Amino acid sequence: MPEPALEILNLHASIEDKEILTGIDLTVPRGEIHVIMGPNGSGKSTLAHTLMGHPRYTVTGGEVKLFGKDLLAMKVHERARNGLFLAFQYPVEVPGVSFAHFLWNAYQSRQENKAEPGKKNPKGVLAFRKRMNASLDELKLATEFATRHLNVGASGGEKKRIEISQMQLLEPRLVVMDEIDSGLDIDSTKVVANAINDMKGADFSALIITHYPRILDYLNPDRVHVMAQGRVLCSRGMELARELEKNGYDWILKEYNAV
Q1: Which of 10, 24, 35, 131 has the fewest CB atoms within 10 Å around its CB?
Q2: How far apart, in Å, are the Cα atoms of 129 and each of 104, 114, 122?
Q3: Where are the domains of the chain?
Q4: What is the dotted CATH code of the domain comprising 4-255?
Q5: pTM score, whole prediction
Q6: 67-116 per-position pLDDT tens digit
Q7: Contact of 6 with 25, CB cutoff 8 Å
């Protein structure tokens, strides 16, 4: 098995003294795409925000390793610089900051972090602009999005594609996608899935949270995990997503005494 990109051991987390994660155990090997499914309120989004270091969520126990490093000991910006990227369920609007300006600053930081010690990364603004325009074109976004304020006035589907564009340019090593397919029509789902497939490789790992198996038809993930009551109940192949789509969650909740 490849080395773990993400390794979660008995993770507990709470918000306002209410425990939401009750002992998560989960491993995503490097280069693999894993999916988390589960009923509403099972802790999926809490897991995503906890991994990224959201201040509202308090870790009360357990360990998390990001490529062998202690993730929980890192500040939020350190997690990002070590290759972690969170695609939000509801991307926020940032008035006054253009997409190009926002992404250029993040791109510079990422390139500096990837450069060899003592050497500057040679990739400059022209290379960045070329890649950004190519990304927007691939994602069927007008080039005017580069100068528009980040996510302002964009539809739900456009916001999700803008996040994919960020991923393409920043080249994170591990991506956590919180319902990346939420609000996408069929065509947008295909565009997003194709872009994710293009990023697949030994240096790209993903943990995708979703309610709907449609996007999985295009992604063909390596593993599907089911969460309920703040823990992972079981992990299987794509056939598990098919069974959940057909029969819902009741049968698996009963099977694992999580009703």
Answers
A1: 10
A2: 9, 19, 14
A3: 4-255
A4: 3.40.50.300
A5: 0.90
A6: 999 999 999 999 999 999 999 888 889 999 999 999 999 998 887 766 54
A7: no
